[in-house]
Amino acid sequence: MTKLTSHKALSFDVYGTLIDWETGIVTALSQGYPDLNFPKADILHAFHNLEKDYQSRYPDLPYSQLLSKIHPDLAAKLNLSAPAEARSQQFGDSVGLWPAFPDTLDALKRLQKHFKLLVLSNTDRASFAATNRTQLPGVEFDAVFTAQDIGSYKPDRRNFEYMLKHVDERWGISREEVLQTAQSQFHDHYPAREMGIRSAWIVRPGAIMGEQGKKGEEVWDWKFDTLGEMADAVEKEASGV
Prior knowledge:
Helices cover 47% and strands 11% of the residues. The protein is built from ten helices and six strands. The chain has a six-stranded parallel beta sheet with strand order 3-2-1-4-5-6, with helices on both faces.
C-alpha cells in the first residue's frame, strides 16, 4: 500500500490551500466598497465564475493583471458602482496581503523535513514572491512554477506536465513520487487524477471556491481538513507508529 511518505515531493496549490484567498478576495474588494453588504458566498461565486472565464480567455496574462481586469466586471455583477482604474490596480496587487491559514506555516516547516516542497500556482512570480515574503516567512520552496512561467492556468494539463518535467530533470523524481496537495477539486484534483498523479485533498471546511461537480463526486487519495492534520499524519507514518 502506498503511504504518504512513499512520495518525495509535495506539489502545492497555494491560494485556497496555504493561503486563505477567500478572505483575501473579500477583504480586497471591500477596500473600495466599505459599505459592501453581500453574502460572502455570492461574492465568491461571482468571482470564481469570472476568474475561470478570464483564465481561459487570457492564459498568458499575469495573475495580478487578470485580477485588475476582473475587478470592474465583479463590481458590475454585484451592482456596485464602476471602480476607478487605481482601485482595480489595487485589487490586482492585493495577493501578497491575503492571509495564510493559521496552521500553514508550522505545517510547511514540518513537511519540509520529509519532502521537497513545490509550488504549482495560478499566480504570477511577483505576487507569489510577495506572499512568500509576507505570509510564509522562513519557508524556502524547492521549486516555484507559476502560471506566468508556463503560459496557462490550471486546470490545464500543461501546468502539471511542466511541473513533472522539471522535477524529473532536476531531481529524478517520477510522477508516482509527486503528491498534488491542494484544496481545489476543479483546479487540482480532477486534472491530477486524469494524469495519474496522486493527491491529498486539504478540504479547508467551509471553503466555497474550487469545488467541482456534486458533493460526493470529489476525487482524492488522502483527505485532511487542514495541512496541519496532514503534517501530523506524515510524522506518525515516519515514526512508525
